[in-house]
Specification:
heterodimer, A: mainly beta, 5-stranded antiparallel beta sheet, B: mainly beta
Amino acid sequence: RKEVEQDPGPFNVPEGATVAFNCTYSNSASQSFFWYRQDCRKEPKLLMSVYSSGNEDGRFTAQLNRASQYISLLIRDSKLSDSATYLCVVTPNSGNTPLVFGKGTRLSVIA
Amino acid sequence: DVKVTQSSRYLVKRTGEKVFLECVQDMDHENMFWYRQDPGLGLRLIYFSYDVKMKEKGDIPEGYSVSREKKERFSLILESASTNQTSMYLCASSLGRPNTGELFFGEGSRLTVL
């Protein structure tokens, strides 16, 4: 089983729609979780961290389900500018091993 | 703001050439990383470093080496470039423990090997 799995998409949604992505991870010992955003031909940038209690930042909500080993990202009232690839990132089991990136989910918001 | 600068945005090299990709960060970060990104394969870790003169292999180190002589600089070296090393190369840095915290990426170096 791959460490981090995401649906590659693309998710094509109209402006104003609500869209949700899930990401599953294989290591039950993982402790830190993040969503990164990568615009076309740009570098990835941190979008938000995912806390056990959930995390909300404006139109974006991230949640963690440890029992089922997945994290989710919900985007409400989608904007054209939300079009990007969203990367799920988790820590592996070892103390100093770097973060593990999913392959990303592509979102296209259509006018 | 943290800035990670990669020396070359676009390079075209020939098979067998030695290639140097330079990365400099200006925020005194301990950790530095080199990834390559290919369509359908996502980001794959080549090498990383937690301190000066220290390096660790990532998931795909074959055909690459690295150098970290100064804290702010992490270089990726392709001793003899091959066509399958055509890719986007991304350098990143972070503060604190390597598996927590925010990674700051450079803009990437797109390498084409002919």
